[in-house]
Automatic annotation (TrEMBL):
Homodimer. The keyword Endoplasmic reticulum does not apply. It comes from Proteiniclasticum ruminis. ATP binds at residues 38-45. This is Iron-sulfur cluster carrier protein.
Amino acid sequence: MIKCATCAVKNKCLKDMKCDLIKPKYGKIKHVVGVISGKGGVGKSTVTGVLAVQLRKLGYKVGVLDGDITGPSMPRFFGLEKERTGYAPTDVENVFKFVPVETGLGIKTISMNFMIEEEEPLLWKGPVLGNVLMQLFTDTDWGELDYLLIDMPPGTGDVAMTIMEQFPVDYLVMVSTPQNMVSMIVQKVVNMAEKLEIPVKGVIQNLSYIKCNHCGEKMNVFTRNTAESQAEKMGLPLLAELPINPDFSEHLEAGQAERFAATNPEYDVIMEAFRNDEQEIYARNKAVKKKTIPFL
Ligand SMILES: Nc1ncnc2c1ncn2[C@@H]1O[C@H](COP(=O)(O)OP(=O)(O)OP(=O)(O)O)[C@@H](O)[C@H]1O
């Protein structure tokens, strides 16, 4: 990593050079996308998994970095909790790279839980966690990827900041639920992203409704407000709404979420948001950034 203080150009360079951002040593990644929610347990890892599956279904080469180092859940989503990361030699003697675990659909996945026993806690503090995560990003043999999705840790703490400041994140996808308490905290992350100049593509409203088994009617569980109006309050485009689906939970518990998300048309809706080209995404975020929408 080039440090500005020791760089010949110093601070006179264009900010867009992004030379202070880390890069993968063993691969090429076109788009790095952070999936984030200020609040824990709203379905961020589930949404990361669904997005990865849907992108893969469209034919993209996809990777997932489980950035929730102390509470990793991506191995469970993909039913890979018994798998272990491999290590491969590099051109440098005694230096090894991580070999990601591939899911059934060929999504390259890296998680701390591929390296330790599932129930083993990591008693590490902020800077160590950030450094380990950077190493997982830089030292993994990703090969060529169209998308790397990072399942970000909950909150606006050390690790989330490390990712936003030092990873080459193209944009963030916010995950929220239709509860004012949650959207208030998600708003903090939106504001954090704005301060750190990371575009936010929009919000995916998880647990948005439940569908009646008999008549198919959509019923709101947490609020009478629409997902659109909640997204508007956050000043973000609504990318998709996902229902509470007990079948999905059961497949998740059984390690079959990947197959469920790939074969259930209910989840195709999430991809509509990704059909826009990058230009459109950036133009939209610039416009969104200009509006300051106070939390109500
Ligand atoms: N749309 C959904 N339908 C049914 N169950 C869901 C849905 N979304 C999430 N869940 C369930 O809710 C629980 C929490 O989801 P998940 O682990 O994705 O949340 P998270 O925000 O990543 O949590 P953490 O803050 O711990 O990282 C999981 O057991 C998951 O199976």
